[in-house]
Amino acid sequence: MAQELAEAQRHLATFPQRTGRRTKAHRAAARKVANVYAKARRKRLDFHHKTARALIRDHDVIAHERLNTAGMTKTAAPKPDPGQDGAFRPNGAAARAGLNKSILDAGWGSFSPGWSHREEAEAGALVLLAARRRFPGPGHPHPRLQRIGPVLSRLDA
């Protein structure tokens, strides 16, 4: 699906940017990109529903971390260069953009909201954990976090 989206976006990018009226081919290319995004969204939601259903069916108590995905995917603030007027220092925006895309692609924000009503229907317990502010260094996970079950990754991986 990622290659299909990349191909559709490349084709859409070949059309001129500034034009008064869009051609029929341009509209078709834009529609193709929109359809690929819609398909990815449907696949992501289907995966979330099936995974949530399986977790609720197989476990009595589910604990998950309440993540602030809106704050995690904010754009990097510009850093003005004090030595030059109108110039800016590198702020890691390109790296941040890639991370933001990965977070949004995995759909962390849309995975957990549907759990509460399902847990109530199944008479199970749902525990929301506050996000931790400090983490151990890379490669040194907390001992309790080593027992976590499946790791959810991108759809196209």
UniProtKB/TrEMBL annotation:
This is Probable transposase IS891/IS1136/IS1341 domain-containing protein. Residues 135-145 have a biased composition (Basic residues). It comes from Streptomyces brasiliensis. Residues 4-74 form the Probable transposase IS891/IS1136/IS1341 domain. Residues 68-92, 135-157 are annotated as: Disordered. Pfam families: OrfB_IS605. InterPro entries: Transposase.
